[in-house]
Design brief:
174 residues, mainly alpha, 7 helices, 66% helix, globular
Length: 174
Amino acid sequence: MPNRHPARRARNAANAARRRPTYTHWDELMASNVDPTPEDKRRHQLTRMWQGLRALEQDAAPTPDDWRVVSDAVNLLETMVVDMRVAEDASGLLPDAVRAMAIAGARHVDEGKRLGLGGADITTLRAVLEDYAELLGTLPHRTAIRAHRLTERRVWDVLDGKNTRAGDVRVVGV
């Protein structure tokens, strides 16, 4: 039997493939505007981040997930500093950390090389991630969720080729 509604089928397929946000607007509204991110959530996020950095430093073959969790933390901090202006990059290392992650991802995707970092990049990332960890313990949970939502939206826009700002880098396939 011929398909009588190809447009409907295409629309349904597009809806099925639609990205789902990690946090919703309601999650943001329900989060505390005074207390920092709850300890268990903060510990989980930071543990994954530090494990990812350790893998990028030391493992023979770090996974794309190792790169992703570190990149997510760097992107979240960038959102907090550049877009939300709830923090400052006093050390001036944030652009270097963004660059280091982009180069590592691109080198892996384009050249098939190890998804890792060199000495200076590790030092830079460690300093930036320590700043991020400190912020998570001090900023209100609502602010952290807002940063997550804005970052997720910005990353999706970069992947879709729209609304990019100067310095945004698109690494595909990691």
